[in-house]
Amino acid sequence: MILEQAKRFDAQALEEIFDRYSPGIFRYAYRLLGDTEIARECMAETFSRFLTALKRESGPDNYLQAYLYRIAHNWITDYYRRKIPPAVPLDKVNLTDSTTEPHQVMVDHLSSQQLREALSLLTADQRQVIVLKYIEEWENNAISMALNRPVGAIKALQHRGLEALRRILNRHKDFDG
Question: I need a surface site. Which of 35, 62, 67, 168 has the fewest CB within 10 A?
């Protein structure tokens, strides 16, 4: 119902959509980008593109949250294509307990710069799946819709991302050795 009202540019519906989804979009962007201002830019552009789609009558018919996250995902992908972040040497990544499961390390130490450095070593797709799955606590079906990929591909990215984090943690352990 709120989506139907938004398609008619009902100000209250648009405000409710922004209030409901903007905090999550911002958190998602910040966790992937590591910069408050760039995350705000992503969030603003996400809602701008959503409004543009509504004007063109090409916006979502359902699954609004997945639609908005897909816009943010595309913006972040484009951002990284424009500006490739510098590689972080493995000896600079300082994560704590390498025996802990990688996704638990992420949950326990999400705000740390060290975690962002470890995540930066993953591919953009792996990083996005890991953040949505373990930080935002999304189900694989929701991630699949948001990233417009089959559930099997999401599971594969998740598996490869966790394995890559495990290797990073093991290498770090070897450097401390």
Answer: 62
Neighbouring CB atoms inside 10 A of 23's CB total 11
Q: Are 79 and 101 in a shared domain? A: no
Take residue 159 and report the two structure tokens written for it: 């598996």
Contacts with 33 (C-beta within 8 Å, 6 or more apart), sequence order? 39, 42, 76, 79
Instruction: Find the domain containing 38 and state its range.
Output: 1-84
- Same domain, yes or no: 94 and 73: no
Phi, psi angle pair for 48, to nearest 5°: -65, -45
- Asked whether 104 and 176 are in contact (CB, 8 A), the reply is no
**Are residues 138 and 150 both part of a single domain?**
yes
Q: In CATH, what number is assigned to the domain containing residue 43? A: 1.10.1740
Please calculate the CA angle 116-118-122 and round it to the nearest 5 degrees: 105
Mean residue pLDDT across the chain: 81
For residues 98 and 156, give the distance between their C-alpha atoms in angstroms, rounded to a whole number.
22
pTM as predicted:
0.62
- pLDDT tens digits for 136-164? 888 999 898 888 899 999 999 999 999 98
Distance between CA atoms of 160 and 4, rounded to whole angstroms?
Answer: 39
Same domain, residue pair 72 and 5: yes
